[in-house]
Structures are given as structure tokens and as C-alpha cells.
Amino acid sequence: MHLIRFPNRKEHKRGLMAVLQVPRLESLGLPGLQMVVEDEHIQALEREKVSFTYLSKATANGKTKTPVSARASIR
After folding, report:
1. Number of domains comprising the chain
2. Which of 37, 50, 58, 68 would disulfide-bridge 41, Cβ 3.0–4.6 Å?
């Protein structure tokens, strides 16, 4: 599973359409243009050339990891 974020609403909409092309696998939409998806969803997004950023530490097999910016913790 991968946590990803789309850069804007247009890409988010395109991403939803690509994710829906993957039968029998669930995805989870989150606030802030984020989604939790499987490897097959990543392949569909790449096939449709949808822009997104990996937020999770692990990426799809054989892919380079996108750096995740550190955020200050709220106390």
C-alpha cells in the first residue's frame, strides 16, 4: 500500500478515474488530495500519466523513492 498526494484538483480527478479502472481492488481517499492505493493503482496512474507524489516511505517495486519532507511535531 502507498500513500500518495495529487498536486491539484485536476490531477486528483484524473487520478480517481485511473484508480477506478483497477477492478476488485479498494483504495482509500483522504483529505488534502491524498489517497492510499495498491501497486496496481500506481501502474494505472502512471499509464494515464497522472501527476502524484509518494508520501509513504515505500514506493512501487523498482521505483525511486520521492523524498518526504520532515514536519515539525505539534505538542
Report:
1. 1
2. 37
